[in-house]
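Protocol step 4 of 6: record predicted structures for both targets in the notebook before any analysis. Target 1:
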Amino acid sequence: MDSDQAVRERYAAGAQAREEALCCPVDYDPQYLKAIPQEILERDYGCGDPSRYVRAGERVLDLGSGSGKICYIASQIVGAAGSVIGVDANLEMLSLARKHRGAVGERVGWENVEFRRGHIQDLALDLDLVDGWLREHPVRSASDFEAMEAHCRELRAKRPLVPTESVDVVVSNCVLNLVRDDDKPTLLREIYRVLKNGGRAAISDIVSDEDVPAHLKADPELWSGCVSGAMREDRFLKAFEEAGFHGVTLDKFDEKPWRTVEGIEFRAVTVLAYKGKEGPSLERNQAVIYKGPFSKVTDDDGHTFKRGERSAVGDKTFELLRRAPYAGAFELVEPHAAVPPAEARVFDKRNKPRDPRDTKGQEYRATTDASNCCEPASTGSSGKSCC
């Protein structure tokens, strides 16, 4: 039995009856569980709660949505103005998730969840549309197979399951490890493709502290049990970087392993990764000051920021450092006179300090009185204490 078949069969069975070996203990916000039927809660399998990274009004994509639990939690967080898409290839799990869509919608006051059938490493191909085509065009020969492949290419191009740059956040709960190793890079590129510029991924999964040997990877029970398909913990983060993400952050790392097999520890993690550093960066006389605590740090574009030094940056980097996950780590220094983008040249001062005169202007000669820096005193209701 190959890994794909093992996963299909085990999760099909898991949709019919709960299997304890498929999940780690996870604490979910109980306020969101009240609206979700017990049948879904009992047959949900995961190792984290990526829904806590979702915000109101967003369009969310849940990869390997299974029974639909994370989708229905996210539905309540995003509210009526947001929407949620669950993608899974397992028919039994999809049937379970879809069955309760109306009931959950009634309980929360809106119905903003839909479930689509597809492989998470191929988010362009809608398998329900493929099945519809095959009912009218059965494959009986090599020529028929070629015609099916051509139709699949057309579906990906014209009727994608999840369009390019169409979602704000991608979440996943313990399913990336179920994808074949050769397909994992493709999966991460697909996550990157469907995210909007400025979007992010919140991925809960299982990682290993050592390389998993071939004989464990060949064990269908360990693979389908979210164990032997795990990536090594450092390579897991590196894979997001290689797919184009920036600000990759290990936000959760369980101290205790979920399982240990032949001395290899397998534990749950949650990784955050961001999309949005594409395109040119323009010279607009902006500077940033890294506040510490390290003596220096280097970002995903190779900019090195020394603690306390005014570093020259282009406008793209300046705007990125305003946002998560960097917000608060830098002081952002705007120029006294803004440089319009149409007049700006390409930024070429990487890893150089910013002369304050670049920001203030070479002819800046102001002399001022002391600024009004007084604040309320620590004692008394109306006293002032000059800084």
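Target 2:
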Amino acid sequence: MAMTDFLNESYELGPIRPPSEAYSLLVRVTCNCPWNRCKFCPIYKNAKFQLRSVEEIKQDIRAARAIYDKILENARESGNNVREAAAALYSNAPGDACRNVTLWMYDGGKNAFLQDANTLIMKTPGLIEVIKFLKATFPSIERITSYARSQTAAHKSLEELVLLREAGLSRLHIGMESGSDAVLALLDKGVTADDHIAGGKNVIASGISLSEYVMPGAGGRKLWREHALETARVLNQINPDFIRLRTLTIQPRMPLHKDVISGEFIRSTDEEIVEEIKLFVENLDGTSQIVSDHIINLLPVGEGKLPEDKEKMLEVIRRFQALPLESRDIYKLGRRLGIFNKLEALNDPALRREVEQVIGQIGPGELDDVLFKLMERYI
């Protein structure tokens, strides 16, 4: 089948999704973010929030199904299995929609993610209709997830959330960022610690899996301790299924960048953030799974299940902190350059020499600024 056969089929996609949804079928339910004032987020600035109609969303799902059917036909004609056909088409797929379907099919076609920043804001009957239509169109889907805001989750009734779960909504990803009211105000997050607790508890009570995102470094040097302790306190009350770490990174497209330039916000260094994370983990209770699955985190292997893996996670941090200063600097730079993917990579002589050659070109006192600049590449 010629690639031109796919050109007439497309559908609307949003700009982001969680790393854990990399292979999910993406369905844009709302456009942009209804709050859109967070100082750390550059994604939706100057873009108006819009609710999409149920029929618009259904039409996109139909378009995805048409692409899916053409890939199945291609597999039959070529004698390949579906995974082989999807892989063969991926790199030459005409457009993001086709690439999304091929990637999803390559991974088995089991997961879907509803975009954009807060699809839970959609009226419940319409969202239920969309979810049911999606599952009817793609019976292979086993998990449907979405972003949500704590306030929205708190304002939905428990009955509504239960109905959404029964329709097929499996998991909600909520950007908590911090449990400190002072840090939340600094970030212009538009929620309070109490909002986080109310929304999180509501989701947990409904039986929908909850993934809360925490932002190490969000308090800067001034509020790092309060940020760590208050975030742990709030999460202990919610006890979400997942706690995901996303280290604060600041680049010029973010409103927070102006606060850095003015000196109002002083960024924590990698070493300071490691100490913050240690304090945070030390004060966590509950049974959450802690996940550090983003390249922007310095110590990606520092993860595990509470309470049994807490000491293991802390040991990774202590091992880093116990390294000589030179080795810590080499690891930090190697990680930010994408050369190291775990602490043990320091023991690879070839990789270490590669980083040492670069660090030798950095002037005294300039390393932290270089690391900040390197981190901008991942946002």
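Step 5 preliminary note on target 2. The chain has a mean pLDDT of 93. The radius of gyration is 22 Å.
Proceed to step 6 after PI sign-off.
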